[in-house]
Amino acid sequence: MHHVVLERWSRLDSLLHRRDARIKLLAALVILVAIATTPRVQSVSVIGYALFLLTGAILAKLPLAGILLRAAVVLPFSGVFALISVLAGDPDRALAVVVKSCLSAITVLILVGTTPLPQLMAAAEGLGAPRMLVLVVQFLYRYLFVISEQGQHMRQAARCRGELANGGARNRRSRFQAASGALAVLFGRSYQRAEAIHRAMLARGFNGHFHPLKRASVTALDLVFLAAAAGVPVAVRLGAGGPL
Questions:
Q1: Whole-model pTM?
Q2: Can you tell me whether residue 171 is helix, strand or coil?
Q3: Could you tell me the CA-to-CA distances from 154 to 1, 141, 176, 177 in Å, in that order?
Q4: What are the b/e assignments for 122-158, b being 16+ CB within 10 Å?
């Protein structure tokens, strides 16, 4: 998993990384609700949320450029709704959609970048999330790595045979056929690998529940962190006015 950036970020050591996963999840939920319920985008509220999240990223020792680049992934989706709002004659709502989506994406990135997924899923289950939903997310996350690994192996094999270098000489139809065949082989190999992993899990006594290696405990510093992480966005939200 070392090739995944978020996975590598979550294994760092910082003030935020050492906080209990349940506390961080609760704080993130409060921040997301505060951002979503802010009635209108004002420069004061946007600056308040931005400075708060910037402080969190600095305390977590996360690269700011990397966070902003990955947060921009939501722009194509939020941009569509913003365009619809502009065409409907409501530019203020369009601006709010873009700003809120970016701030929410940064919040989620900081949460995931400071909490390994097993700890995050255990925290979600501990806070009452449906167990089946937690299992689906964990298996999906784990098997995405299987598909990614098989894809990298196939790409390396194709490069060794010189197929990628000679791809420009082929016509469009032959390249499409080669890509569709490679995709079928990829999922076939990934399915076999996933079956082997599942049998290995059953052989090791897997009973439908992922047990964390370290039992989590909430400390006084975690509670102080929760009070600060939840109090600041709530104060910014109240300062923005409007109905709660």
A1: 0.78
A2: coil
A3: 18, 21, 16, 16
A4: bbbbeeeeeeeebeeebeebbbeebbeebeeeeeeee
Give the span between the Cα atoms of 166 and 73, in whole angstroms. Answer: 32
- Which tokens belong to 98? 């873009």
Q: Select from 58, 29, 20 the least CA-distant residue to 230.
A: 29
Distance (Å, rounded) from C-alpha 119 to C-alpha 214?
9
Rounded to 5°, angle at Cα 184 from 180 and 190: 140
Helix (H, G, I), strand (E, B) or coil at 4: coil
DSSP secondary structure code for residue 74 in this structure: G
Question: CA-CA distance, 43 to 234, in Å (whole number)?
Answer: 16
Show pLDDT as tens, one digit a residue, over the chain (244 residues). 445 788 889 888 999 999 999 999 999 999 999 999 988 778 888 999 999 999 999 999 999 999 999 999 999 999 898 999 898 888 888 889 999 999 999 999 999 999 988 888 888 888 888 888 888 888 777 777 777 777 777 777 777 766 555 554 456 666 666 677 777 777 777 777 778 877 888 888 877 776 666 677 888 999 999 999 999 999 998 887 766 5
Surface-to-core class of residue 60, CB atoms within 10 Å of its CB (0-12 exposed, 13-18 middle, 19+ buried) = buried
Domain ranges for the chain: 5-116+216-240, 131-203
